[in-house]
What does this fold into?
Amino acid sequence: MEPITPPRLNLARLPTPLVPLRRFSEKHKVPTIWMKRDDLTDTAASGNKLRKLEFCVAQALEEGATTLITSGAVQSNHCRATAIVASQLGLRSHLILRGKSSEHPDGNLLLDELVGANISFVSGADFKELDRVVEDISNQYRQQGEIPYAIPIGASDEIGLWGYIEACRELKSDFTSVNINPGFIFSAAGSGGTAGGLILGNHLYQLDTGIMSFSVSENEAYFVDKVSKDIQAWRERYKYDININDLEVNIIGGYVGPGYGRADTPVFDTIRDLARTEGILLDPVYTGKAFHGLMTELSLGRFTTSSDIVFIHTGGIFSLFPHKDQLHAG
It folds into this structure.
């Protein structure tokens, strides 16, 4: 029995390329790393979030939404992508950002302002009561005659999972085209939606590979719980009979560094190394940390049983600019 098919918009430029990092892999004497270039889903609204928004925003339009409300850190890739998509579709957007405004906005925040997003900056304490804040702002829009639709952090809920469920259909075709059977697929875990989608997609499309996610924010237990709950909600919403206990949620911790949105010297060194070897840019918030984690694990002899492995490049190029001082120092 197939799951119920959800509504979907055509927002991302798909399929994205799957490319081998041959020079980098040979340089470091590791299995061939193939990179799924989801940083190329679009120019401005780029990254993994666009795959998820194809489904989340489609649901919003089904419900007649005129305003998209979402939240994240000041330099949230997801918030930037949502604001740009809203502008493309003629919708309003309202971003709830944890942190302070800036007289000289940079990176994602600059683009948020450029496309006309309404922005509320909130403290860490208020962000812990995010549901209340979202409901208060939603009520303000209702009073103005608007129809608000709230998208969760990272578009990571049972609807957003479809983004990487369907990415697995694409990956299955990729693997056939380049004739590989990768032992593992790696990605960053920031809100859990990419990990959850990959886990479900791996099952539905029978990729027969290990799904491994590097935490860039919370601890392993948090993500195991979050992803498991999202998968359960997906199962209930889309009426698919799947044994949740058959799905492994593999979260690799230890690579958060000094905290979410901050990176240490080894991560910046890895970003430079890949940029200078392959001409591919990672960011210090998500992909740089996860890719550094992967290289560290490989150097310890882990995940080396397969001749080919895959890393999902989830985007984030605009997050480089707020870290220009650390990057320039190298």
About this structure: The chain has two domains: 18-47+157-329, 48-155. Residues 18-47+157-329 form a domain with the Rossmann fold fold (CATH 3.40.50.1100). The first strand starts at residue 18 and ends at 20.
